[in-house]
Write a structure and sequence with these properties.
Structural class: mainly alpha
Largest sheet: none
Number of helices: 4
Helix content: 55-70%
Shape: globular
Number of strands: 0
Amino acid sequence: MRRVLAIDVKVASAALVKSPVDERKRMCELWIHQADWAHKYMKQNKIPHPVWGNGSLTEAMHIRDYADFCYGNADHCSAMKIVLACLIANKTSKIKRSCN
């Protein structure tokens, strides 16, 4: 996956708010997986993946229009916590695999 920008986290969090609470972690993990594969595709073929884009999290999510994120909204902050936890878990698993 390409470098994650603050806007990627914000867009993912805002999009997760639209998902059922019990599906949010799975959705986020799916988006990260898609971004990883899109980035690999882009590096290998020199063109964006036809569905998941260039490897950025926002591109992989297929989100062009998203709800405004509100830091004062507990549901939005809870969604952001899920996004950050999924990103940390993804990075940690990659580090563990490269050390073995």
